[in-house]
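#random but structural
TW: two for the price of one
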Amino acid sequence: MAIGFRPRILSEKAPPRRRHIYEGSSKVLFEGPEPGTYVLYFKDNHHKNNELSVTGKGVINNRLSELLMLRLSEIGIETHFIRRLNMREQLVRATEVLPFDVVMHNVATGDFAKRLGLDEGMMLPEPIPELHVRTKGLLDSVISTRHITSLGWADADEVETLLNTTQRINDFLCGQFLALGVRLMRYSLSFGRVYLSDFMGDTQIILIDEITPDNCHLLDLKTGERLDLNKDSEEGIYDEQKAAKVYQEIAKRFGLLDAGGPPDLTISSLS
C-alpha cells in the first residue's frame, strides 16, 4: 500500500462515472442504463449544509425511500421508483419535473406557523397543502393553483389529480408513521409528468424524488423530541452526531436496522 494512502470510508464513496443530469445537496441524478430512466444516487451530505457529512445517511435514505415508494405503489399511487440498484442508488423513471412542490401541513410548525400567527406545534383542524415554487432562495415561494394553470405548468385536471393524490399519500403516510410512534407534522412532495405515447395530452402525473427525514418534520410522540434535522437547520445548528442518531432511529423504527436485518444497514456498517 502506498505511503499516505487512506482507504475510502462509506461516507466518502464516490458515485460512478455516468452522464450527470442534476446534483442537489443530498442527491445526484445520472442518466440511466435504459431509455427513459435515471439513476438516483443518495449522498451523505447534510441537506441544509453541504459541508457537513452524516455517515451512512445516503444508505438509510435510499432504503427508506424505497420502502415507502413500494408501499405507496401497493395502494395504487404511481411513483417514479423502479428498483433499488445497490446501497446508495435506485433506478427511477425519467419525468418532466413540475416546477413546484406540494408541502403538506398536518401540524403548524416553522415558517407556516409564523406566517399565519399560529402556535408552534398546534394540530391543524385538517391537513393543509401548500404549493411552492421549486426555486431556492425565494423569500415567499407560496403560489396558487391559478399561477400554475396560467403559466402553463399544469392544467386544471392535472392540478386536481395532484392534490387528490397528495391527500391519499398523506392519509397513508400519517398512518405509517403513527404506527411507529411518530407524528408526521409536515413534509414536501415532488411530482413529474410522464408521456405515455406520442399523442398530445396522453400524460400522467406521478410522485418523484424521495420521502426521507430530509424533507419530513417528525415528532416522537413518546418523548416530544424532534426526529428530524429541519428545526435545528432553521436555527443554524449542525450536529453531525445528533444527525446520525436521527437517521438511525428512523431506520430502526421502520425495521431497517433490526438485528439480523440487511447486512448493508447494520449499525456497524454505518458508523
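TW: number two ↓
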Amino acid sequence: MQLTNFFKLFFLALLWGSSFLFVKVAVAEIPPFTTVTAVVGIATLVLYSILRRQGGRLPKFGPIWTRFAVAGMLHNALPFALLVFGEQHVDSALAAVLNGTSPLYAILLAHFLTKDDRLTPGKSLGLLVGFGGLLFFVMPSLQAGVHASLWGLIAVGAAAASYGIAIVYTRTYLHDLPPLVAPTAQMGMATLYALPLALLIDKPFGMALPSVNAIGAVLALALFGTALSYIVYYRLIKQLSASQVSMVTYLVPIVGLVLGVVILDEQLTWNAYVGCVLILAGVMLVNGFIKLPNQLSRPSDEVFQT
C-alpha cells in the first residue's frame, strides 16, 4: 500500500468522523430522514455539476443502474434507516462496537467472492487488533453498563453488515468507471430512496425554518461528509482492496477523539491511548505496513494446504 493511499484512508476517516458533529447539530432541528434526503440530494447536484463541467456524463439507463441502485441501498439508505432505529434502543458505546464488525464482513466476503483479496494471517491479526483497540476506546462506557434491546442489536448489527457488503460490492462492480460517475449515480439513487421516507415519516412541510447553524451543518455534511468523501472513497477502491478500505471504520473513532480534544477540550484517558495504538497497529497489519514472516503472511488456504 503506497503511503499516499494510507493518507487518503486517514482523510476519508476525517471526513466521515467529523460528520458526526454536523449530524448532531442538524438533527437537533431537522428530522433524520429529511436531513439525509437534503444531504444526499445536495451532494448529487454538486457531484453532477462537477461531472458535467469536466465533460463527463452519467451512463444511459441500463444494467449498470441496477448496480448503482444496489450500492445506494447498501451504502446509504439501508444502513442509515437501520441506525436511526437501532440507536434508539442501543447505547452509543455498544453501537460503536457493533459498527466495528463491518470490516469483518468485508474481509470475509472479499476472501470468498474475489480473487485478489485473500484472507491472510496478517489480515486476521490486524482485524482482531483493530477491534481490540475499538473495545478499549469504549471501555469506560461499557463498564458503566449499557442498555440494549434485541431488535436494536439486530438493527445496528445489520447496518454494520450492510456497510461491509457495500465495500466489497462497489470494489467488485463499480471500481472501473470514469471518475465521479459512480459516486454521482450512487448518491442519486440514495436520494430516491430517502425522499419517500422523509415525506412519509418526517412530514417536513410543516416544520419550522431551521437555524443558520442547522442549515450550515447540512451543507457541510453534503459537501464534505458526502460529496468529497465519496470522491475519495471511489478513488481508494480503484487502488486498494476491499479489506484495506474497510479498515477506515477503525480510524473514525480516532478522528472523533482528536476532535473532542481540540474542539471540546476533552481529556484523554489511558484506554484512549491504548485504543489508538491498537487501532493503528491493526490498520497497518491489514494494509501491509507491518508484515508477518513469509510463511505466516500467505493466504490462509495456502497455509493450510502446506
